[in-house]
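Structural prep section.
Before we set up the soaks we want a predicted structure of the protein with GLP in place, mainly to decide which crystallisation condition to try first. Input record follows.
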Amino acid sequence: MKTLESQQRERLPVHVHATADEACVELAREIAALIRLRAAAGKMAVLGLATGSTPVRLYRELVRLHREEGLSFKNVTTFNLDEYYGLTREHPESYWCFMHEQLFNHIDLPAPQINLPNGTVPRAEVFAACQAYEEKITALGGLDLQILGIGRTGHIGFNEPGSGRDSRTRLVTLDALTRRDAARDFLGEPNVPRYAITMGVGTILAARKIVLLAWGEAKARVVAQAVEGAPVESLPASFLQGHPDVRFLIDEAAAAELTRYKHPWLVGPVEWTPALTRRAVTWLSREVTRPVLKLLDEHYSEHGMADLLTEQGPAYDLNIRTFNEIQHTITGWPGGKPGADDTHRPERAEPRSKRVVVLAPEPSDDVLGMGGTLTRLVEQGHEVTVVYLTSGSLAVPDEEAQIVSDLVRDLASSEPAANPEPHGGNDENASAHSRRLKALLRRAEARAALRNAGIPAGSERFLDLPFYEQGRYRQFRPTLFDSVALAGVLRELRPHLLFATGVGQDPSSVGAVCFSILTTALSQLDAEAWSRDCRVWLYRTPDKAWGAHEIDMAVPLSPAQLSAKIHSIYQHKSQRSQTPMLGASLHEAWQQADATARGLAVTYDALGLAEYEAIEAFQRWHATPAIASASPKI
Ligand code: GLP
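Run finished without errors. Recording the C-alpha cells verbatim:
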C-alpha cells in the first residue's frame, strides 16, 4: 500500500471513517465476503471476536446482513478473545452473555461452533484449559480474521501493559484503569472481577488478518501511541505493528491525536484554512513558549510553517490576526451583550433576553461542564431551562439508594422497607423500584445543584428518555421515541440558544447517544422558524478540555464563581464513591472540573491574552450532513 507523506509516521495502516457506523458497514461487508468465499469452497471461516462497546455496531450490522441479506453463519467458527475469571456464563456481564445478546442469539451460528474461554474452571485447571483453547484454534487451521478493540491502557483482549509479544492464552490480573473503565458495567469498581482469561498477544498475532476498531476521543491518545510509537510491552497494541495484514479502522474522533490530524503541517503540505492556521499558531506559541504576539518569522519557518508564512505572513500579520480571533472568543456575556456592537462577539446582542436551553445527558453534566456560565446566563436575565435527558439512575450505587430508602422508610414508618435489591453488577435485575428511587435521588441532587447555582426553582425538566430506562451501559439503542420526546420539549421551549454536549465521545456513551438524539430531533424541527434562529453551543465535561484553537466562546470565571461552581458539583452526592460518572468519583470529578477551568485560563494567559482565574469554553455547532443523517431507527 502506498503511504501518503502525511501518514509517514504511522507504522501500520490506519483507515479513518467519518463515523463508527460507516466503518462497521465496511468491515461487516468484508467479513460477509470471507464467510461466503469459504462457504463456496466448502470450508469453515474462523473468526476471532472481541467484546466491549466497540464491536457492538459491527455485530448489529452482521445481524442485519443475516436478516436482510441472507448471510449465513453455518460455516463459521468463532473464538472470543477473553472472559472474566470467576463469572459464570449466566452472569449478565460475562462475555458469554454479551456475545449471545449482541450476536449469537440473532444469527444461525451453530452453538457447538462458539468458543469462549471458560471463566469458571478451577485454578488448578486453568493452564490446561488455556492450552486446550490454543490447540483448538490451531486444529481448525488458525484464525482467519481477528477483530480487536483497544483499552485505554493499550491492551488488546486483556493483555495488559507488560504482556509479552509471544504471550499465549492465560490467566491475567486486570489493570486498575481497566477495572475502573469496567466499573459502569458492574455498577462500581468493587464488583469488577480482578482476573480474566485472555488470548495472548502471540495468539492474536498468529491470526491471518487483524482489524482493530476504535471510536471516540477517549481512545485517540492510545491509538496514536500504538500507531506512531515504537512497539513496547508497556503498550501491547503496539505489537500489532509487526503483523503482515493488520489495519486500524477508526473514526475521526479516535484519529485526533495522529500527527496527520493533530499537526498536519509537520508531515506534508497542507491547505491553510482559517481553522488550521489558528491551530498551528496556538501550537507554535506553546511549542516555543512565547505569547502569540511575540512569535517571529523564524519560529514559523523552523516549525514546518514556512509556506504559511509565505501565504499569510509576515509573522506580525499572522500573529495579530490570530490574537484578535482568540481575543474575540472571550466574553462575560454568554447570552450576548445587550445594546453592544456584536460584530466580533460570539453571541448576538438581540433579543436582549433569550430563551436558553441547556441539555444535560446525565444529571451533573450541566454543572460540571458549564456551571459558571449557567449562573451568568440567569443573572443576565435570560430564561434558562435545564433539560436532563436521562434519569442517571444507572450511575447510583446501591449503597447510596439504601440510605435514601432507609430514610423514606423511617419517615413513613408504617410502610415496609423499600430496599433496593443488591445485585452485584446486574442492573437488569434491579427492581424497577430501585431504579425509580435512584432516579429520584438524582433529581433531588440536580435541583440542589441548580439552587446553588442560583437557577430559579422550576427551571428544570426531567425527560427520563426511554433508551436509558430500557438500556444498559454500552448497549443503548435510541429510537424515535427518544427524539420525539426531545423535539416535543424543544418545540415547547423554542430556545434561541441551545447548549449540548457529547460530540466526539464514544458512540455508545450516554453523551454521544444523547447528541445523536438531538441531531435527529433538530432535523424533525427543521421547518420551524424558531429552530432556524436557534444557535447550538457545545460544552464539554471536564475530562476532555477544548484546545485553544477549538474554542468559539470563552467565558471567564472569577475565583468566587469558580468556587460556586465546585459547590454545585458537590451537590451530586450519590456520585461520591467510585461511580460511573466519568469513571471517577465525585471528588475526582470536581478536581478535574477545577483543573480544566483553571488550565484553560493558564492557556489563554500563555497565549498572551488577559489572565483570568478560570474559563469555561464552548464551540459553535453547525449541522453536517453526515451527522444529521445518523438518525437512530425505531
Ligand atoms: C475490554 C475487553 C477488550 C476491549 C476493551 C475496550 O477490556 N477485554 O477486548 O477492547 O475492553 O472496551 P470498549 O470497547 O468498551 O472501549
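Observations: The radius of gyration is 26 Å.
Flagged for discussion at group meeting.
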